[in-house]
Design a protein that fits this description.
It is a single chain. By secondary structure, the protein is an all-alpha fold. 75% of the residues lie in helices and 0% in strands. α3 runs parallel beside α5, α5 packs antiparallel against α6 and α8 packs antiparallel against α9. 49% of the residues are buried.
């Protein structure tokens, strides 16, 4: 990493605010546990939970636009420093962005606060991240990395659609907007995965990276974009064939990334197996099985599993530590994949839905709880090697 920070200035900043991954990874992981636990407790009738939009919409919205967007923001705001050489957001500016993310998380459950106010605060976050990212990229004219800006703005638009549909009483459209946004995240995961998974695998194993095939890369994004269209515009006749094409393309792409070399390296097999959940989820949809089963393979595995694996690796590297996760984190990787399997089964076996959902929630909470306990001290303390960041 380039030494692009003034060490004296960096030392005056609390460690938690020295780079974007630190606060967003920690707070995002905490929200992921809360978002699942509160939803399952409400669904089970253990508690009464009536946030803005209702518990069902709140769960989907907060897992996506709370948890997932926090991790995306943390990763991109950290990675853009390496891509461009422009110092990453830190200190008070980073704190302001964190508070912008946090405000709607705290106020959505409080129905005495006007829904429109919460909506405006929430809709400001992703454009703010896109603006920050775009500014760094444009500064060095590194246009290749500008691709994330329109994706963030597309997510923001779908978030707005979900809010507006809810205010019009169209709960079905509100949910479809969330599902469409989740597929945009899958596109982002696919893009980042194609960059980092082969690279990480080559660095930590005997695998020799292959040149990306442009038609597989393009096919991934085109097919996923088409799938988003089938959801938003109710093109149900096209949904299964489009999902099948996307599943095959993404599986072929993943197959070239050296998965056979990963079995002894937890930071690798956790990434590969989580990424594999994407074609599996698409395959479930293509086969005409319950959509919720396929969707949660994508959401819990392709997003949640990938997020946990990426956070575990990025946090080690950017806090100046060896790329060896704590032993408990390996159990966390297993638990999050178990949570995916149980959640998919809950969608496939209606008679056992609630017990399987509860078991999945427990496994998920433990997996991200391990990250919070083991990585929290790393994220809130200076780098182990004494360098800035």
């Amino acid at each position: 990493m380039l030494n692009i920070h003034d060490p004296r200035k960096t030392e005056s900043i609390p460690p938690l605010l020295r780079l974007g991954f630190r606060p967003f990874f920690l707070l995002g992981a905490a929200l992921s546990v809360l978002g699942v636990v509160l939803w399952v407790l409400a669904l089970s009738g253990v508690i009464t939970f009536e946030p803005h939009g209702g518990a069902y919409w709140w769960h989907g919205h907060e897992m996506l636009f709370g948890f997932v967007t926090a991790i995306i923001a943390g990763f991109l705001l950290t990675a853009v420093q390496n891509w461009t050489g422009v110092p990453g957001l830190s200190g008070n500016k980073l704190l302001a962005l964190v508070l912008l993310w946090l405000a709607p998380r705290l106020t959505l459950p409080i129905t005495s606060i006007p829904f429109e106010l919460v909506m405006v605060m929430d809709l400001a976050f992703l454009p703010a991240v896109a603006l920050t990212l775009g500014h760094s990229v444009a500064k060095v004219k590194q246009w290749r990395n500008l691709v994330f800006v329109p994706m963030l703005l597309l997510m923001a638009s779908l978030n707005a659609l979900s809010y507006l549909a809810l205010t019009d009483g169209n709960g079905m459209l509100a949910q479809k907007a969330l599902q469409g946004a989740a597929l945009v995240v899958i596109m982002i995961v696919a893009l980042l995965g194609g960059r980092v998974i082969p690279f990480f695998t080559e660095r930590a194993s005997s695998y020799q990276r292959k040149t990306n095939l442009w038609y597989l890369d393009a096919g991934t994004f085109i097919s996923l974009l088409m799938l988003i269209g089938t959801l938003i515009f109710d093109l149900t006749a096209l949904q299964r064939p489009v999902a099948a094409v996307a599943a095959i393309i993404i599986l072929l792409r993943w197959h070239r990334w050296g998965w056979r070399h990963t079995f002894s390296v937890p930071l690798l097999w956790s990434l590969h197996l989580s990424y594999l959940c994407i074609p599996v989820g698409l395959g479930i949809i293509a086969l005409g099985l319950p959509f919720t089963a396929g969707f949660h393979a994508l959401a819990a595995g392709g997003m949640g599993g990938m997020i946990l694996a990426m956070m575990a690796r990025v946090s080690l590297g950017h806090t100046g530590r060896m790329l060896e996760p704590p032993k408990a984190m390996v159990a966390g990787f297993v638990l999050v994949l178990l949570a995916v399997v149980l959640r998919v089964m809950a969608g496939l076996i209606p008679a056992a839905y609630l017990p399987l959902l509860i078991a999945s929630a427990v496994a998920w909470g433990l997996a991200f709880g391990v990250f919070i306990v083991k990585y929290g001290p790393m994220l809130t303390s200076p780098r182990a090697d004494g360098r800035p960041g």
